[in-house]
Automatic annotation (TrEMBL):
Taxonomic lineage: Bacteria, Bacillati, Actinomycetota, Actinomycetes, Kitasatosporales
PROSITE patterns: IMP_1, IMP_2
UniProt key word Lipid metabolism: no
PANTHER family the record matches: INOSITOL MONOPHOSPHATASE, INOSITOL-1-MONOPHOSPHATASE-RELATED
Broad EC category: hydrolase
Keywords from the named record: Hydrolase, Magnesium, Metal-binding
Domain of life: Bacteria
Pfam families, per database record: Inositol_P
Protein's name in the database: inositol-phosphate phosphatase
The enzyme's E.C. designation: 3.1.3.25
Signal peptide, first to last residue: none
Reaction(s) this enzyme catalyzes, per UniProt: a myo-inositol phosphate + H2O = myo-inositol + phosphate
Length: 281
């Protein structure tokens, strides 16, 4: 079994580009041919009116589920649509084997509306630690990648988040209040204060990319599903940012986090957001 950091490092040194190509190919085969061409029968609802799935989601996830373990034999795949069909498959994130965490179309609502604000997210984790990630926004022609300890890149160029400008309101993307508990609503109200400019989030993956690029100062999210967060959290870290839960600890992709949590351009901003999230609860 592939279960050591050294083996993962060796794999990434040899095959990181192959993973990128698999992500691009999934989008080229399954996602972009359906963008702005979806038929009514290609869109379904899962748990509610805002929880959509399309043939593009299913096809891209199936493609990646076939291809990624071929690159890394012995690895498992946790994909959003597979977990919807079999919730027990999520437990692979807590196992000992390397695990690919896949969101085939993050921002499905935007995809269905024909907007460009969607992306494909892939992360590789071992023992609960994300080792590498890929964020691909095919409609925008952007691909960001990160390898733990080796930095983050956007289309091959180094990516640095920097720090917010002094004296300017913090730009924070937040979970929509319709999808929060009462306690989480109270926590998010802490951001309704002078010096902070909160707004509802779009695609989580693209919000993380915006933090890593220094276009957004922080996020404040209240759900734990790893496929939405694993890739982006590593991207932010490797760009120089930080992430913290409301308990003041880094986010754990295996769960058990005190929510909401934040990812921010730098540690000082992360701590400020957590303080604001905590004072109203």
């Amino acid at each position: 079994m592939i279960d050591t950091d050294a083996t993962i490092d060796e794999f990434l040194a040899r095959h990181a580009h192959d993973v990128e190509e698999a992500v691009r190919e999934a989008a080229a085969r399954e996602i972009m041919p359906r963008w702005r061409r979806l038929a009514e029968h290609e869109v379904d609802r899962k748990s509610g009116p805002h929880d959509l799935v399309t043939d593009a989601d299913r096809g891209a996830e199936l493609y990646l589920t076939r291809q990624l373990p071929l690159l890394l034999p012995g690895s498992a795949v946790v994909g959003e649509e597979a977990v919807h069909a079999d919730p027990a498959s999520y437990e692979a994130i807590r196992g000992r084997a390397p695990v690919w965490i896949v969101d085939p179309v993050d921002g499905t609502r935007q995809f269905v509306r024909g907007e460009p604000g969607f992306c494909t997210l892939v992360a590789l984790a071992l023992d609960g630690v994300v080792r590498a990630s890929w964020t691909y926004a095919p409609a925008r022609g952007l691909l960001a990648a990160a390898v733990r300890g080796q930095g983050a890149r956007l289309d091959g160029e180094p990516l640095r988040s920097g720090s917010p400008e002094a004296g300017r309101d913090l730009r924070v993307a937040t979970s929509h209040p319709d999808f929060t508990t009462d306690e989480q609503k109270r926590a998010l109200l802490g951001l309704r204060t002078d010096g902070v400019a909160p707004r509802p989030c779009g695609s989580a993956g693209l919000e993380y990319l915006a933090v890593a690029r220094g276009e957004l100062d922080a996020t404040a999210f209240n759900w734990e599903l790893a496929w939405d967060h694993a890739a982006g959290l590593l991207l932010v870290e490797e760009a120089g940012g930080a992430h913290l839960t409301r308990a003041g600890r880094p986010y754990d992709i295996r769960g058990g986090n005190t929510l909401p949590f934040t990812a921010a351009r730098d540690e000082a901003t992360a701590r400020r957001v957590v303080e604001l999230l905590s004072r109203a609860v």
